[in-house]
Amino acid sequence: MGGDLFSDDELGTPPTMGTGLMGPGYPGVVQDASVVIKAPVGTTLESIPLPRPPAGEEELSSDEEETFEACKAGIDNLHKAFWIAGKALETMKTGNLHRNSGVPNFADFIWINWEISESHSQRLMAEWRIGEALAGLGWRPRESQVRELAPVAKNHGEAAAVAVYDTLARDGRRVTSSALKDVVRQLPIIPSGAVPADVVRAVREVLEASGPATVSVTDSLADVSAGDAAGAVSPESESAGEGGVQRPDPTDSEDVRRLMQALACVTDAAKAVSRPAVRRAVDEHPEAAMLVVREIEAQLGKIGRAIAVRKPAR
Question: What are phi and psi of 198, to 5 degrees?
Answer without folding.
Answer: -65, -40
